TrEMBL record:
One of its GO terms (molecular function) is L-valine transmembrane transporter activity. One of its GO terms (cellular component) is plasma membrane. Keywords: ATP-binding, Nucleotide-binding, Transport. It comes from Elioraea tepida. Residues 2-234 form the ABC transporter domain. One of its GO terms (biological process) is L-isoleucine import across plasma membrane. This is ABC transporter ATP-binding protein. PROSITE patterns: ABC_TRANSPORTER_2 (PS50893). PANTHER family: AMINO ACID ABC TRANSPORTER ATP-BINDING PROTEIN, CONSERVED COMPONENT OF ABC TRANSPORTER FOR NATURAL AMINO ACIDS-RELATED.
Length: 246
């Protein structure tokens, strides 16, 4: 349904993404992993339209969208979350989600109603009337997810939505993300929390120094010693093996 094809992004002399291709089949959860600075966020930004690639193209639903601005892509059905969560602190949770819902619902009452439905999907319903500033980190992550979901995407790009959560909060979020996929939304997720990648992704792409260095089923990638030691850090082999066997 979507793909980054032979994408290169340069920042001055730095090649942040180097000839990287990532296909995202419809209805799947695809993981994008790799060490810090590998180029994951930059590749995401090219898919969402915030970053123009120096080479390569972005295809969505059979159409070359490389030159479309972010808001046009959002309208086509691409939504992303941001690593740094910045809700409108003075607005309520409901109003924050409605900001996303406004893309499809012009009338305020409709957007607010749509926001409620989305809140239910991500477990924020009891908190709808709280100011966003009152949310915990886990709540803010759910709100970030809800704001993206409220745009009614076909492709949802999740940038570390589980970062900063404790293990039980991660466990609580896994079924939420799976349910989004089951509702027909294709998901591409950047994630450092391996337990979640293993549990959720059907296919994983490994980015290191801008290049895709491995791809495949999470278990296969997880057992690739070269990938583990070279790109996920010392000791990752044991952590991944534990997660894959769980
Ligand atoms: N706007 C920019 N201008 C200059 N350099 C940038 C810019 N954005 C990213 N970079 C650099 O490009 C490289 C890739 O960064 P990117 O944020 O895409 O990596 P990442 O894999 O998402 O890392 P992390 O896991 O730490 O978020 C890094 O060396 C980063 O410093």
């Amino acid at each position: 349904m979507a793909s980054a094809e032979y994408v290169t992004v340069r920042f001055g002399g730095l090649v942040a993404v180097n000839d990287a291709s990532v296909p995202v089949p419809e209805g799947k959860i695809v993981g994008l992993i790799g060490p810090n600075g590998a180029g994951k966020t930059t590749l995401f930004a090219t898919i969402a339209g915030f970053q123009r690639p120096n080479a390569g193209r972005i295809v969505f639903a059979g159409r070359d969208i490389t030159r479309l601005p972010p808001h046009r892509r959002a309208r086509l059905g691409i939504a992303r979350t941001f690593q740094i969560v910045q809700p409108f602190a003075g607005l309520t949770v409901r109003e924050n989600i409605a900001v996303g819902a406004h893309l499809r619902h012009v009338a305020r009452a409709e957007a607010l109603a749509a926001a409620e439905a989305v809140a239910q999907r991500v477990g924020l319903e009891p908190l709808l009337d709280l100011p966003a500033a009152a949310l915990t980190v886990a709540g803010r992550k759910r709100l970030e997810l809800a704001r993206a979901l409220a745009t009614e995407p076909r492709l949802l790009l999740l940038d570390e939505v589980l970062a900063g959560l404790n293990p039980s909060e991660v466990r609580d979020m896994i079924p939420v993300i799976r349910a989004i996929r089951d509702d027909g939304v294709t998901v591409l997720m950047i994630e450092h929390v391996m337990q979640a990648v293993m549990a959720l992704a059907e296919e994983v792409h490994v980015l290191a120094e801008g290049r895709i260095i491995a791809r495949g089923a999470p278990e296969a990638v997880a057992r690739d010693p070269a990938v583990i030691e070279a790109y996920l850090g010392h000791g990752a082999a044991a952590r991944l093996a534990g997660a894959a066997d769980a």
